Amino acid sequence: MVVEQDSSPPAVDGEGQQQEQQPQQRRHKIPVPTNYRSASKILRLVVEERRNVKSLVLEDKHLRKGKGLAMMDLILVNLTQIKDLVRRTELLEKEPRLNPWLATVLVAELIFGRKELTGDSLPVQCVRRYREALQEALTTSEVAPAKQLDFKEPRYVRINVNMLAPPGAIRLLQEEGWVLVDEEFASYAEYLERVRNLGDSEFLVDFHFREMLVFPNSAKNYWGRATEHKQKFVLQNKACLLPTYLLNPAK
């Protein structure tokens, strides 16, 4: 068998010197954002193996706990509608290489969550192309939307800084299973929206007062039983804290 040799002349530079042939560089594959990948794995375990979603989020080493719980809550609350949208748009049939669990996470974020997706990985670009089709399917969907619960006033708890510094108070609560929502908010309105969507195991540091912690309304049962924390934490409405600051101006 005769093997043909490449007879093309070697490349030369501007001075007539031969240039070494450089191998063509491979294009780097853009990875799927970590929070999407982790959420898709957790979703599969919750649905297929009936695992506890809170435990899975807390065990995940790559997912921020507060955002992770909020994302999983968004997905699971709207899961029936998401499945209907995926079916009606034939997303998985038209995109057979798209992981179905990841597709569910991305559709949840794009349609029911932030209304946008992070990054330019291939799965993200793929689902973005179906934005209009998904939105159109949502407007004509016969699946009842997830029931929105009436908002209940959050529970405010002030740290007794004479007994415990804020970092120590937060660590104490985290050791008992509470998850700090460690996020930055560009505005008070954005912060209030996050307060409205606190999960049952989440808490926030108040937007204005760093020694004030904000818990969901359901936390009142916990604080009603937490007698061992009576000296370290004070159940107090945020409005009651204002006079203290007004009567103690900065020097």
TrEMBL record:
Taxonomic classification: Eukaryota, Metazoa, Ecdysozoa, Arthropoda, Hexapoda
Pfam family, one: NSUN5_N
Transmembrane segments: none
Origin superkingdom: Eukaryota
Domain called NSUN5/RCM1 N-terminal: residue spans: 81-139
InterPro entries in the record: NSUN5_7_fdxn-like, NSUN5_RCM1_N
Domain NOL1/NOP2/NSUN 5/7 ferredoxin-like residue range list: 154-218
Region ranges (Disordered): 1-30
Feature: compositional bias, Low complexity: 14-24
The name this protein goes by in its record: (northern house mosquito) hypothetical protein
